[in-house]
Amino acid sequence: MTVLVRDVSRADEMRWRELFRGYTDFYNEVVPQAVVDLTWQRIVAGEDGMAGLVAVDGAGTVCGLANLVFHRSTWAADCYCYLEDLYADANMRGQGIGRALIEGTYALADARGASRTYWMTQDTNVTARRLYDRVGVLTPFVQYRR
Asked: Cα–Cα distances in Å, from 47 out to 39, 40, 68, 138?
């Protein structure tokens, strides 16, 4: 399958929302509607360091998303790119959508001068980790939360 990655546009809103809901459902998380609305607004406006990419198949259907946060670092003079959300339509997995979105993320991070691109996933997300092991480097860091 041919996959094109491009910046998200306002015309993608309904599909972006469907995919984002699929993503949060996958992780058994509930994001309040007001936060989803705010996230969408920030992404399409490019506010607060946020950016969005979508994967589009040969028929023009949006089949995946990548939500990014560009931020400063105390360890670098330039910025970092955090790939916060990466999701491919569950019915279209295994067709290169995730890889294309990560490559698109790398390209945008390079264009914006980010010296690091990073993301997280659950240790049990074996399918995604097979891809991540090919396109990134696993670090030894452990995440803590409040």
From this structure: 10, 10, 11, 29
pLDDT tens-digit profile of 107-142? 999 999 999 999 999 999 999 999 999 999 999 988
Return the residue matching tokens 């992780």.
27
Comparing CA positions, the residue from 48, 54, 69, 57 lying closest to residue 13 is 54
Considering the four listed CATH numbers 3.30.420.40, 3.40.640.10, 3.40.630.30, 3.40.50.300, the one that applies to the domain covering 4-135 is 3.40.630.30
Domain ranges of the chain: 4-135
What is the Cα–Cα distance from 68 to 49, expressed in whole angstroms?
A: 8
52: helix, strand or coil: strand
